[in-house]
Amino acid sequence: MKYAKPYLSVEDQAALLLTRGMIGVGRDELIEYLRAVSYYRLSGYWFPYKQPDDNFRPGTTFQQVWRTYVFDRRLRLLVLDPIERMEVALRSRIIDRMTCAAGPFAHCDPGNFAPTMIGATRNPKFKSIHDEFMAQLEDSAKRSNELFVKHFRAKYISETDLPFWMAGETMTFGMVLTCFRHLKTPMQKEIAWDFGIPAAVLSSWLLTINYVRNLCAHHCRFWNRDLAVKPMIPNHRSLPGWHKPGTIPNKRAFAVLTLLKHLLKHTAPNSRWQLRLRELLDEFNDQPIGQMGFIKDWEQCPIWADV
User: Is the pTM of this model over 0.85?
Assistant: First the structure.
């Protein structure tokens, strides 16, 4: 089918919404909102209020839609805090373990990683995952404005590579993820248990965190989204708290919030993040948190009860 919908100006978009039954807002005010936040960005927030014929359910107000948008925006900002803490903590542990085991340039030798690091990469420009990783690391170090990088380059002119405790600090989260997933198994397990979980679970969570980080950084709807990258739920034996008072589903935001709460216990045990989340939920207590995957009596879950 060929796309044939015509362009609609902001004024036309406002008129269309009002024609479809949006109430509680005047045309001029609605135009100003649509100039601040685009029609298609907001459409994800009014979609639950639409009927099969594209008209809004009777009584749907723009304030309801806007309130959900503001809630989601503040939730995304809140989520970025523990993600940042986790990224910094994981990077620190990888750098420490690798350099302690194999010296300042441990990252340069693929033999210091699991055999998977010399496996093929999707990028035909590189022979292996390690080759691509090193190219990315070199590029990130060149673009870095960190004083420690500039100082090293000026003092050690003959060195082509930075020691890992410097180079590692320039890694993107995607590179940190690549590095962890290709560590030798004993080191991977050791780091994972620093965060209180098996290596397979941490590897899965990191993929989800990377996905959610990108969602939040690009201001995408998060609160009721079906996760494209779902985190592994730990089994009863390793982490029974994930199954009390009921098993936490891994499809929606609540699973992400719960894994971040778990990780904060190991990265920032004195953080008030849980209290800030509770305050946000209380302020927006009209939002249907069931659509976020919250389970019944969720605060009785041992992970959340441990303030």
Answer: yes
